[in-house]
Amino acid sequence: MLIPQTKNIGLPLMNLMRFKGLPILQQLHIEEQLLRTSSENWCIVNDGTNDPTVVMGVLGKPAELLEIESVLDDQVPVIRRFTGGGTVIVDHGTVFVTFICNKEAVPNLQPYPRPIMSWSSSLYGKVFQGIGDFHLRENDYVFGNHKFGGNAQSITKNRWIHHTSFLWDFNVQNMSYLKHPKRAPAYRSARSHLDFICRMKDYMPRSTFMDKTVEATETQFSLRPIQLEAIRTCLEAEFCPSSRFLTNEELEAAAVALQS
């Protein structure tokens, strides 16, 4: 079997997997298993997902974050993922980028949320150099004061994951499923979802963003392209991921509790 060639010999090795339209729950399952069972570094780029899906952080409360009646009426799937962070609704207009690393993979990086966030912001600074007014505001990637990238993390004893959902485009109707969160970044200034977010497509071509992200990653890692089929046998069949769909019964119970 031919071994994929890598560039930038001397840099830490990172496996690169690229998908188009991988269902978000499947992506989360792969990510959690790689975080908890692999000892290698990974970058995952997923160009969109399938049907509109709400994805909540591990501690998210549906009654506080979702317009539950609308979600149930329109049969919008709701996932509770294994990482922290806020609530998003994702679809074919969302681009996902994930980094899963050993703690020593990035020199001098302290394995805590804020340093990891700052590192990722520096990497994406290369991607968006000269485009818009890109910067990190609190835990969000923004152009000016409009959010286009939401981040979530999980940190284990020896490894960490940082994944981002980028709003390449969005359906205005989908935003109506999300409530204004009780805990919102100060820079949001009580703005509605539509006044708070922006579309990446107004700043950069979609393929250019993904290519530049890979190029920026190559400045710090030696990338090795990997196909999912090549690692299926390595993924533990008995691994039980924690990201899952919430049932209608759980959502209905949350709605009832809110009214009581």
UniProtKB/TrEMBL annotation:
Pfam families: LplA-B_cat. Residues 39-225 form the BPL/LPL catalytic domain. This is BPL/LPL catalytic domain-containing protein.
